[in-house]
Write the structure tokens for this entry.
Amino acid sequence: MVSIQGSAISGQRSALAIGEWLTGIEVLILFKSCSHLNSGGHRPKADTRHADS
């Protein structure tokens, strides 16, 4: 019983890690798309300079 429970917990942890990894990629994609919008001139130039650096 304990060994099964332990493997279930480790499985949950790995699933959680994968979820965090995917979330990080989604945030990265969102950040890149936001930077692309900024370079399009939708925001003040000070913001685009900050996003590019």
